[in-house]
Amino acid sequence: MENYFKKYLDNYKRVLDSISPADVNNLFGQISQTIQSGNQILVFGNGGSAMSMSHFATDMVKGAGDALEKRVKVISLNDNAGLITAIGNDYTFTDVFYKQLKTLANPGDLVLTLSVSGSSPNLVKAFEWARTNNIKTIAMVGGRKGKLSEIADTTLVIDSLHYGYVEDTHMLICHMIAFGFMENPVVLD
C-alpha cells in the first residue's frame, strides 16, 4: 500500500501545482468586496461538498469575523436538514437550494458552490435563478467542468477527474480564503 499512497500524493501534488494563486486571489477579492458592502455569501453543495461549504461558512463567520471584528455573513444552505427534506419531499430535490435562494438572497449577494461534476441539477437550477436575479455566482468545479462552468460568473476549475483530489483541493482553497482574512485582517481597512 505504501506505493499506492506515494502515487496518490504524487498525483495530488500535480493537481495542487495547477492552481493559480491569481485565480484564488480573484475569489478572495469578490468575497472581500461582498463582505465590505454588507451583503451576504450563500454557500452550498452536495455530499462532501456540502460538508465543505458548511465548514467554510463556520470558518468565515467565526474565524474571519473575529479577526476582522466585522460581521461576516456567510450562510450554508446545507445546514437546515428539516428545510432541505421538506423542500425535497414536497417539491423535488432539484429545488432544495433554489427555493432557499428565493427566500434569502438579495441583489449584491454572492452565491458560491463546490461541485466535482459541475452538473448537479439542484446546483444548476440555483445558479440559473441567481443569475436572473442579479446575484453574483462563483463555482469551483472539477475537470469535467459541467454546466456550472458555462453559467457561473466566475469558475475555478480543479484540473482532475478524481473526486478525492477535487474535494480536497476545494477545501484547501476555502481554507486559503478564510485564513487570508484571519491572518491578514487589514485587507478590509
Automatic annotation (TrEMBL):
Per UniProt, residues of the SIS domain are 31-187
The protein's name in its UniProt record: SIS domain-containing protein
PROSITE patterns linked: SIS (PS51464)
Q: Please name the CDD domains in this protein's record.
A: SIS_GmhA (cd05006)
Molecular function per GO: carbohydrate derivative binding
Biological process (GO), any one: carbohydrate derivative metabolic process
